[in-house]
Protein backbone atom coordinates (compact mmCIF):
# COMPACT_ATOMS: atom_id res chain seq x y z
CA UNK A 1 0.00 0.00 0.00
CA UNK A 2 1.36 3.40 -0.97
CA UNK A 3 1.81 6.15 1.62
CA UNK A 4 -0.91 8.24 -0.07
CA UNK A 5 -3.47 5.42 0.14
CA UNK A 6 -2.46 4.69 3.73
CA UNK A 7 -3.04 8.32 4.70
CA UNK A 8 -6.45 8.29 2.97
CA UNK A 9 -7.37 5.08 4.82
CA UNK A 10 -6.40 6.64 8.16
CA UNK A 11 -8.55 9.68 7.28
CA UNK A 12 -11.58 7.50 6.50
CA UNK A 13 -11.21 5.46 9.68
CA UNK A 14 -11.06 8.67 11.73
CA UNK A 15 -14.13 10.09 10.00
CA UNK A 16 -16.07 6.86 10.52
CA UNK A 17 -15.16 6.74 14.22
CA UNK A 18 -16.34 10.33 14.62
CA UNK A 19 -19.62 9.57 12.84
CA UNK A 20 -20.28 6.53 15.06
CA UNK A 21 -19.72 8.47 18.27
CA UNK A 22 -22.91 9.72 19.93
CA UNK A 23 -23.04 13.48 19.53
CA UNK A 24 -25.22 16.27 20.92
CA UNK A 25 -28.30 17.22 18.91
CA UNK A 26 -30.33 20.36 18.42
CA UNK A 27 -33.36 20.61 20.69
CA UNK A 28 -35.39 22.32 17.97
CA UNK A 29 -34.75 23.07 14.31
CA UNK A 30 -36.84 24.92 11.73
CA UNK A 31 -36.26 24.07 8.06
CA UNK A 32 -38.05 26.09 5.39
CA UNK A 33 -37.69 26.81 1.68
CA UNK A 34 -35.28 29.70 1.34
CA UNK A 35 -36.76 33.19 1.36
CA UNK A 36 -35.52 35.61 -1.31
CA UNK A 37 -31.92 36.42 -0.40
CA UNK A 38 -31.07 40.15 -0.23
CA UNK A 39 -27.55 39.54 -1.53
CA UNK A 40 -27.91 36.16 -3.24
CA UNK A 41 -25.25 34.66 -0.98
CA UNK A 42 -25.23 31.68 1.34
CA UNK A 43 -24.57 32.32 5.04
CA UNK A 44 -23.64 29.79 7.76
CA UNK A 45 -23.64 31.18 11.30
CA UNK A 46 -22.47 29.22 14.34
CA UNK A 47 -21.79 31.70 17.16
CA UNK A 48 -20.60 30.41 20.55
CA UNK A 49 -23.53 29.01 22.49
CA UNK A 50 -26.62 27.12 21.45
CA UNK A 51 -27.52 28.77 18.12
CA UNK A 52 -26.96 27.73 14.50
CA UNK A 53 -28.36 29.05 11.24
CA UNK A 54 -27.83 28.51 7.53
CA UNK A 55 -29.47 30.90 5.07
CA UNK A 56 -30.14 30.35 1.35
CA UNK A 57 -28.18 27.10 1.38
CA UNK A 58 -28.31 23.90 -0.66
CA UNK A 59 -27.98 20.63 1.22
CA UNK A 60 -24.91 19.77 -0.83
CA UNK A 61 -23.24 22.98 0.36
CA UNK A 62 -24.28 22.28 3.95
CA UNK A 63 -22.93 18.72 3.73
CA UNK A 64 -19.62 20.08 2.50
CA UNK A 65 -19.43 22.23 5.63
CA UNK A 66 -20.72 19.60 8.07
CA UNK A 67 -18.50 16.76 6.85
CA UNK A 68 -15.44 18.83 5.83
CA UNK A 69 -15.65 17.23 2.39
CA UNK A 70 -15.52 19.15 -0.92
CA UNK A 71 -18.75 19.04 -2.91
CA UNK A 72 -17.04 17.18 -5.78
CA UNK A 73 -16.32 14.34 -3.34
CA UNK A 74 -19.95 13.94 -2.21
CA UNK A 75 -21.46 11.50 -4.69
CA UNK A 76 -24.74 9.90 -5.79
CA UNK A 77 -27.10 12.52 -4.38
CA UNK A 78 -30.41 13.42 -6.09
CA UNK A 79 -30.43 16.44 -8.45
CA UNK A 80 -32.27 18.67 -5.95
CA UNK A 81 -29.40 18.27 -3.45
CA UNK A 82 -27.41 20.94 -5.30
CA UNK A 83 -30.30 23.16 -6.41
CA UNK A 84 -33.06 23.40 -3.79
CA UNK A 85 -32.26 26.05 -1.17
CA UNK A 86 -33.30 26.18 2.48
CA UNK A 87 -33.25 28.49 5.49
CA UNK A 88 -32.38 26.59 8.68
CA UNK A 89 -32.60 27.86 12.26
CA UNK A 90 -31.61 25.55 15.10
CA UNK A 91 -31.17 25.76 18.86
CA UNK A 92 -29.59 23.33 21.30
CA UNK A 93 -30.49 22.76 24.93
CA UNK A 94 -28.53 25.52 26.65
CA UNK A 95 -28.75 23.92 30.10
CA UNK A 96 -25.69 21.77 29.36
CA UNK A 97 -23.85 24.45 27.43
CA UNK A 98 -20.09 24.45 27.82
CA UNK A 99 -19.03 28.07 27.97
CA UNK A 100 -15.35 27.20 27.79
CA UNK A 101 -15.16 25.78 24.27
CA UNK A 102 -12.51 27.19 21.98
CA UNK A 103 -13.64 28.48 18.58
CA UNK A 104 -12.36 25.29 16.95
CA UNK A 105 -14.17 23.09 19.48
CA UNK A 106 -17.37 25.09 18.90
CA UNK A 107 -17.00 24.58 15.13
CA UNK A 108 -16.55 20.81 15.50
CA UNK A 109 -19.50 20.60 17.92
CA UNK A 110 -21.81 22.43 15.50
CA UNK A 111 -20.65 20.24 12.61
CA UNK A 112 -21.51 17.10 14.62
CA UNK A 113 -24.92 18.53 15.49
CA UNK A 114 -25.66 19.33 11.85
CA UNK A 115 -24.69 15.75 10.93
CA UNK A 116 -27.24 14.53 13.49
CA UNK A 117 -29.80 16.92 11.99
CA UNK A 118 -29.20 15.39 8.55
CA UNK A 119 -29.90 11.91 9.94
CA UNK A 120 -33.02 13.00 11.86
CA UNK A 121 -34.77 15.36 9.45
CA UNK A 122 -33.42 14.30 6.05
CA UNK A 123 -33.02 10.58 6.83
CA UNK A 124 -29.51 10.74 5.43
CA UNK A 125 -27.47 7.56 5.26
CA UNK A 126 -24.07 7.40 3.60
CA UNK A 127 -20.81 5.52 3.53
CA UNK A 128 -17.19 6.35 2.78
CA UNK A 129 -15.01 5.00 0.00
CA UNK A 130 -11.82 5.69 -1.86
CA UNK A 131 -12.39 6.30 -5.58
CA UNK A 132 -10.13 7.31 -8.43
CA UNK A 133 -11.59 10.54 -9.81
CA UNK A 134 -10.70 13.06 -12.53
CA UNK A 135 -8.59 15.73 -10.86
CA UNK A 136 -6.05 18.48 -11.33
CA UNK A 137 -2.62 18.47 -9.74
CA UNK A 138 -1.66 21.99 -8.64
CA UNK A 139 2.01 22.40 -9.55
CA UNK A 140 4.51 25.21 -10.02
CA UNK A 141 4.52 26.83 -13.46
CA UNK A 142 7.71 27.64 -15.32
CA UNK A 143 9.39 30.50 -13.46
CA UNK A 144 7.95 29.50 -10.07
CA UNK A 145 5.33 30.84 -7.70
CA UNK A 146 4.18 34.47 -7.78
CA UNK A 147 2.19 34.16 -4.54
CA UNK A 148 2.83 36.74 -1.83
CA UNK A 149 3.64 35.62 1.71
CA UNK A 150 0.82 36.75 3.97
CA UNK A 151 1.19 39.17 6.85
CA UNK A 152 -2.43 38.65 7.91
CA UNK A 153 -3.24 37.07 11.28
CA UNK A 154 -6.47 35.58 9.97
CA UNK A 155 -7.86 34.39 6.67
CA UNK A 156 -10.35 35.87 4.20
CA UNK A 157 -11.77 34.41 1.00
CA UNK A 158 -13.74 36.22 -1.68
CA UNK A 159 -14.91 34.35 -4.78
CA UNK A 160 -17.05 35.56 -7.66
CA UNK A 161 -17.80 34.56 -11.24
CA UNK A 162 -14.46 35.92 -12.46
CA UNK A 163 -12.30 36.45 -9.38
CA UNK A 164 -10.74 34.69 -6.40
CA UNK A 165 -9.14 36.86 -3.73
CA UNK A 166 -7.68 35.56 -0.49
CA UNK A 167 -5.53 36.47 2.47
CA UNK A 168 -3.73 34.18 4.90
CA UNK A 169 -4.45 31.00 2.93
CA UNK A 170 -2.49 27.76 3.01
CA UNK A 171 -1.92 25.91 -0.24
CA UNK A 172 -4.45 23.29 0.89
CA UNK A 173 -7.13 25.97 1.19
CA UNK A 174 -6.14 27.50 -2.15
CA UNK A 175 -6.43 24.06 -3.80
CA UNK A 176 -9.88 23.53 -2.23
CA UNK A 177 -11.17 26.86 -3.55
CA UNK A 178 -9.71 26.27 -7.02
CA UNK A 179 -11.49 22.90 -6.98
CA UNK A 180 -14.85 24.64 -6.60
CA UNK A 181 -14.09 26.89 -9.56
CA UNK A 182 -12.50 24.24 -11.82
CA UNK A 183 -15.16 21.61 -11.19
CA UNK A 184 -12.65 18.89 -10.29
CA UNK A 185 -10.68 17.87 -7.25
CA UNK A 186 -7.48 19.92 -7.04
CA UNK A 187 -4.55 18.35 -5.19
CA UNK A 188 -1.72 20.58 -3.98
CA UNK A 189 1.61 19.29 -5.28
CA UNK A 190 3.49 22.59 -5.22
CA UNK A 191 5.55 21.78 -2.13
CA UNK A 192 4.87 25.33 -0.88
CA UNK A 193 4.36 25.85 2.86
CA UNK A 194 3.13 28.80 4.87
CA UNK A 195 0.23 31.17 4.19
CA UNK A 196 -0.28 33.40 1.16
CA UNK A 197 -2.26 36.35 -0.22
CA UNK A 198 -3.55 36.23 -3.78
CA UNK A 199 -5.66 38.09 -6.33
CA UNK A 200 -6.81 36.06 -9.32
CA UNK A 201 -8.97 37.45 -12.16
CA UNK A 202 -10.08 35.77 -15.37
CA UNK A 203 -12.49 36.28 -18.25
CA UNK A 204 -16.14 35.32 -18.02
CA UNK A 205 -16.66 32.22 -20.17
CA UNK A 206 -19.91 33.70 -21.44
CA UNK A 207 -18.40 37.03 -22.49
CA UNK A 208 -17.38 37.83 -26.03
CA UNK A 209 -13.63 37.88 -26.64
CA UNK A 210 -13.80 41.60 -27.38
CA UNK A 211 -15.44 42.37 -24.02
CA UNK A 212 -12.37 41.78 -21.89
CA UNK A 213 -8.60 41.67 -21.96
CA UNK A 214 -8.50 39.16 -19.14
CA UNK A 215 -7.10 35.63 -19.74
CA UNK A 216 -8.99 32.38 -19.34
CA UNK A 217 -9.14 30.81 -15.87
CA UNK A 218 -6.33 28.32 -16.53
CA UNK A 219 -4.09 30.91 -18.16
CA UNK A 220 -4.73 33.37 -15.33
CA UNK A 221 -3.49 30.83 -12.77
CA UNK A 222 -0.19 30.56 -14.63
CA UNK A 223 0.26 34.26 -15.40
CA UNK A 224 -0.93 35.71 -12.08
CA UNK A 225 -0.05 33.01 -9.52
CA UNK A 226 2.87 31.20 -11.15
CA UNK A 227 0.98 27.92 -10.72
CA UNK A 228 -0.52 25.38 -13.10
CA UNK A 229 -3.42 22.92 -13.10
CA UNK A 230 -2.30 19.63 -14.65
CA UNK A 231 -5.02 17.07 -15.56
CA UNK A 232 -4.66 13.91 -13.48
CA UNK A 233 -6.52 11.10 -11.76
CA UNK A 234 -6.28 10.85 -7.99
CA UNK A 235 -7.37 8.27 -5.41
CA UNK A 236 -9.56 10.39 -3.16
CA UNK A 237 -11.81 9.88 -0.13
CA UNK A 238 -15.49 10.34 -1.02
CA UNK A 239 -18.84 10.28 0.74
CA UNK A 240 -21.41 8.19 -1.13
CA UNK A 241 -25.05 8.99 -0.39
CA UNK A 242 -27.15 5.85 0.06
CA UNK A 243 -30.42 7.68 0.90
CA UNK A 244 -31.66 11.21 1.56
CA UNK A 245 -35.16 12.72 1.68
CA UNK A 246 -36.52 16.21 1.44
CA UNK A 247 -36.92 17.52 5.02
CA UNK A 248 -39.76 16.33 7.20
CA UNK A 249 -42.28 19.01 8.25
CA UNK A 250 -41.46 21.03 11.37
Keywords:
5 helices; 27% helix; 2 domains; alpha+beta; four-stranded antiparallel beta sheet; 250 residues
Describe the 3D structure.
The chain has 2 domains: 3-129 and 238-243, no CATH class; 145-225, no CATH class. 27% of the residues lie in helices and 33% in strands. It has 5 helices and 12 strands. The strands form 3 sheets. A 4-stranded antiparallel β-sheet has the order 1-5-3-2. Strands 4-12-6-10 form a 4-stranded mixed β-sheet. Helix 2 crosses helix 3. It starts with a helix and ends in a 7-residue tail after the last strand.
Fold topology:
Elements: H1 3-20, E1 28-33, E2 43-45, E3 51-58, H2 59-67, E4 74-75, E5 85-91, H3 103-121, E6 125-140, E7 148-149, E8 156-159, E9 163-169, H4 171-182, E10 185-188, E11 196-201, H5 217-225, E12 227-243
Parallel strand pairs: 4-12, 6-10
Antiparallel strand pairs: 1-5, 2-3, 3-5, 6-12, 7-11, 8-9, 9-11
Sum this structure up briefly:
This protein is α+β, with helices and mostly antiparallel strands. The protein is 27% helix and 33% strand.
Strand content: 25-35%
Encode the helix/strand succession as letters: HEEEHEEHEEEEHEEHE
Helix-strand makeup class: alpha+beta
Number of helices: 5
Question: What distance lies between the first and last C-alpha atoms, to the nearest angstrom?
Answer: 48 Å
Cα-atom radius of gyration: 20 Å
Mean pLDDT: 87
How many domain regions?
2
Shape: globular
Major sheet size, sense and barrel closure? 4 strands, antiparallel
Binned, the helix content reads: 25-40%
Adjacency order of strands in the biggest sheet: 1-5-3-2
Number of strands: 12
Low-confidence stretches: none
